[in-house]
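A sample follows:
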Amino acid sequence: MSFNVYLSGEIHTDWREQIERGAKEAGLDIHFTAPVTDHDASDAAGDHLGPEENTFWRDHKSSKVNAIRTKTLIEKSDLVVVRFGDKYKQWNAAFDAGFCAALGKPYITLHAEDIIHPLKEVDAGALAWATTPEQVVQTLRYVLKA
């Protein structure tokens, strides 16, 4: 079985690379996609549409341009992994999880135990909760090779 997996969320650690490497080592047939993980490039995604004096409108335009990619890749995915890190609040990741729930798209949450409470609704919609990238890889291995 082949899978398309979208890796959503936190961009400040190498969790995506760990999952991709683990899947490759396990011989899993997975095509991974992700949002733009270069923070400055993501923030500037709408700048080509014209300058804005108010940062709200700059962020608004860029979020919409980024949403073209995110929405398309989530819709094309078989599964989404949503990572919540501990350094920043990933509101975009929570939005992606909600989008998955609305689509009936299966998703796995990936986060530490100390943020279970604020993510209780997000986790309630997930089909699995992992605390490490290795657990995500083990879940993918089961799904694809069971």
